[in-house]
Amino acid sequence: MPNFNLLPRACSLLLCLISYGLAADDTPNTIKLAAEDNWAPYAESSGIGLSHSLINSAFSRVGIEVDSIVVPYARAVVMAKKGIVDGVFNLVKEKSTQDQFIFGKQALFSATASFYQNKQSPLNVESKWQLPQNTKVGIIDGYEYGDELSELPNIQVIKLSNHNQLINLLLLNRIDTAIMYDLVAEQYIEQMRVSSEIGPTFVNHTGQVYLAFSKKNPEAEHLAEMLDTGLSALKNDGSYQQIMTSTIETAHHFSDKLKP
């Protein structure tokens, strides 16, 4: 004789299995991302770098494959805003971006940016708030440099396309200073062999760098949660620190090889 007391439990188990299957089906197997091409060692034109390693590894932990296209940063941001891609690499969370994208709870990493100068034409001030009237400050068009940049009273912002242009204009004294993220600046300054002429002065800010998801994607919040889960897994087993250490050591080794 059948045990009808077991029927409610069996039905409940079946509903759980169906719900789990639907949830699994809702999770995409592949995510399409736009990665910038000019921010070594975080993201390079060849499609490698710290951000690639962290994002690919984190999503692999939750069964998602990453399909990244490498484009200039400003284009990557636009593509994410329009929903052409599911997300964009290396967005700094600040007032200008937090309402335009979906962010997870965990940043990929933090990155510090400083003001750089021509050592033959020093700024002779101790902070960004002391910059003299009409100071020409070079930045990369589309990058985020902290909420305080727009509050600096005495600066004229000059927007350029890449770091080589920033450094060349510093060498020519066409700009008074440039803001660059420190690990990135180190790569380009050594590559151009101008470490004796160009160097940092004082810190601009430290930003929390994220993979930001498109609000056009109805699965954006879920994808952000999946990334958080993957990043937590990397941190729990030590893989996150291994990736960070390996990338930074490789970057410093590259710079050392370029020194005369």
Automatic annotation (TrEMBL):
It comes from the Bacteria. SUPFAM superfamilies: Periplasmic binding protein-like II (SSF53850). InterPro entries: Solute-binding_3/MltF_N (IPR001638). The keyword Signal applies. The keyword Signal applies. Residues 1-23 form the signal peptide. Pfam families: SBP_bac_3 (PF00497). Residues 31-244 form the Solute-binding protein family 3/N-terminal domain. Keywords: Signal. Belongs to the bacterial solute-binding protein 3 family. This is Transporter substrate-binding domain-containing protein. It comes from Shewanella atlantica. The lineage of its organism: Bacteria, Pseudomonadati, Pseudomonadota, Gammaproteobacteria, Alteromonadales.
